[in-house]
Write a structure and sequence with these properties.
Strand content: 15-25%
Number of strands: 11
CATH topology of the largest domain: D-Maltodextrin-Binding Protein, domain 2
Helix content: 25-40%
Number of helices: 12
Number of domains: 2
């Protein structure tokens, strides 16, 4: 019997490279890989489930996996993760100096189910005391108009969200029509040096390290999702996929962290990587349910509180069973 052919869609991550190129194999699986931009992947998988295995925003995953008829399940493989204190941008003319000043202000994000914004809206409530209904929220494309929500949401009672179809967050932030924005990538106005647009937290890296030490939360942006019918028909598939992704990641980190073999053309990148590995207790990019339990649990709570997840779910409910016993590298 031949290998099981599976379609996989992700963006081009180095930590998936060896698996994608066949240098690492998933036992019994013949992967057919599509490399696309993540917005296209999210839209097509959310709407049509075009692939067996797909990268998916963890916020959008929480919306889809908590539906009563959920037809996907998560694989605890991390595509993308970033701390997001550096994602707060403000117009300095608004007078916003600290996070508490966002109360009563106009704050934008590209989508409501935007993972970076989900974490930071939750943080505003938990640690600053700024409730969702105390902010005037706006939604628009980050640097171009026209971005739409990709999953169904139900805003909590009292929350105001204005969708703007004909302008970008960057344009509105630069003009002062927004006081602030939470955006995963720096807006064009900031990159071009607009004099009024600055980060709310210039010291974001120190804040992020402190946040991790206190909470053990290392925010996850994108994970891998599987079609549930695939897992039900072939229960061995998640473990074999997980092991291949984990070995591919191990090789990527080896390329990064060993100064004798580093293939990346930046002078101090291996040294910085080693510092990160120490901060994260040996693995600067952990996979697996157990290693990421504080992060998964917090995200699922925030997603439910913000009207994205349809119910309060636990990590064990929405990720494939048995992966915790696989080899975590």
């Amino acid at each position: 019997m031949g290998a099981l052919r599976l379609s996989i869609a992700t963006t081009d991550y180095d930590h998936f490279r060896d698996f994608r190129l066949g240098e690492v194999r998933a036992a019994g699986i013949d992967p057919i890989w599509s490399l696309l931009g993540h917005h296209e992947i999210f839209a097509r998988f959310a709407a049509h489930r075009e692939w067996d295995v797909s990268e998916l925003s963890i916020a959008k995953f929480s919306a889809e996996v908590t539906r009563p008829d959920a037809d996907i399940v998560g694989l605890p493989v991390v595509c993308s993760r970033l701390f997001r204190f550096g994602s707060f941008y403000v117009n300095r003319r608004s007078g916003i100096k600290e996070a508490a000043d966002l109360r009563g202000r106009r704050v934008g994000s590209p989508e409501w189910a935007h993972s970076a914004a989900v974490y930071m809206r939750g943080w505003l409530g938990d640690e600053v005391g700024v409730r969702l209904d105390e902010v005037d929220w706006y939604q628009a494309g980050a640097n171009a108009p026209g971005r739409r929500e990709k999953v169904q949401i139900e805003l909590p009672e009292g929350v105001s969200l204005t969708r703007v179809a004909d302008r970008s967050l960057s344009d509105m932030l630069a003009s002062g029509d927004l006081d602030a924005a939470i955006i995963a990538r720096p807006p064009t106005c900031f990159l071009e040096g607009h004099p009024d647009v600055v980060r709310l937290f210039p010291d974001f890296r120190a804040r992020e390290e402190d946040y991790y030490r206190r909470t053990r939360v290392w925010p996850i942006m994108h994970i891998v999702a599987l079609r549930r019918d695939l897992v039900e028909a072939h229960p061995w598939v998640p473990r074999n996929l997980y092991n291949a992704f984990a070995e591919s990641k191990r090789r990527s980190l080896e390329r990064l962290l060993d100064p004798a073999v580093s293939r990346y053309p930046l002078a101090w990148l291996p040294a910085y990587g080693q510092r990160m590995a120490q901060l994260f207790e040996g693995d600067p990019f952990p996979f697996g349910l157990e290693a990421n339990l504080p992060t998964f649990s917090l995200l699922l709570r925030y997603a439910h509180e913000q009207g994205i997840a349809q119910r309060q779910a636990t990590p064990a409910e929405v990720f494939t069973a048995g992966i915790e016993t696989a080899v975590v590298i």
